[in-house]
Amino acid sequence: MAARSITSILGKTPNQSAIPYHRIVYSAGKIWFNPELEETRRELYANENIAVSPKGIVQNLDEVLYYFDE
After folding, report:
1. Is residue 14 part of a domain?
2. How far is CA 25 from CA 41, 65, in A?
3. What's the domain range around 25?
């Protein structure tokens, strides 16, 4: 349910180019690739040293996951 809320909010954002959408990761490290933007998104991940498998799974999630302080 929360994922749908986030998708709805992002879809209504006026300046979507300012949102680092490539950082949204689903459970178990899965990411979503749009065929039109897959190459661009893979470049963004590579620039941030995020290893992504051909099936769209973040391989080094433990290294790159950020935890917010409570």
Report:
1. no
2. 12, 10
3. 20-70
Percentage of the chain modeled with pLDDT above 90 = 33
- Taking the alpha carbons at both ends of the chain, their separation in whole angstroms is 23
Is residue 10 in a domain?
no
pTM: 0.69
Number of domains in the chain: 1
How far apart are the C-alpha atoms of 64 and 70, rounded to whole Å?
Answer: 19
- The structure tokens 């979503």 sit at 32
Q: Are 56 and 28 spatial neighbours (Cβ–Cβ below 8 Å)?
A: no
Give mean pLDDT, residues 36-64.
Answer: 92
d(CA 33, CA 55): 9
Please say if the pLDDT value at position 60 is more than 80. yes
Name every residue whose Cβ is closer than 8 Å to that of residue 44 and which is 6 or more positions away in sequence.
Answer: 22
Residue 46 lies in a domain: yes
